[in-house]
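so my prof wants the structure for this chain in the tokens format not the other one, which i didnt know existed until like an hour ago. anyway here's the sequence
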Amino acid sequence: MTENENPLLNITHTVSWRDRWWLLDVETSGLDRQEDDIIALRLACMEDYKITQERALLIRPRRPLRAWAEGLTGISNQTLEQALPLEEALRELDALDGPFLFLDRDFTLPFLRNAYSRCGREFSKPCLLQDHLAARLLGCPSRQKTEMFLEKLPPPNGLYGTPPQNPDLRKLYTLSLAVFHVLEGTYHIQNTAQLTDFYEQGERI
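here's what i got, hopefully its the right format
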């Protein structure tokens, strides 16, 4: 199985779906993973399916944002003048306790890896790629909009808490609840070790 087929990356300790997870969304200055930069890391901590905190790390890019990027992200060059240097932002990310949940879509993970590489390091944070896992559950490509996944997954009745304020994190939170609900209720998979075993056995979800 290739890395792209397995949604679990760098997770070496067993983590249950009810444990602490950090939902992560990135804002970038553009779509070119080599030339453009991460300008914001938006985070929400989820424990026992409830959001316990939400925060954002703004990161100073190597060059000013183009006007369309300011409009799209809602982040201005003036705001970024006071943002964290990349190295400091990554240190804060590294200090967070718990694995990360994010949508990859061949976008987030490459940007994170390149950001770490610019600081002379390798991205090794434990994480779960929710779009890859949702796609495996549904038997469809991973590069789908979150709304498409949610249309096809059963609603996670009774699991909802107060969602994150950020709209992209809110979608990720809803998708995470739906995916974990299916894993627990339909396949009796309650943690990352069981999911790894399931994948290694070569079974299809």
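also thought this was worth mentioning. Strands lie at 8-9, 21-28, 38-47, 50-58, 100-102, 127-129.
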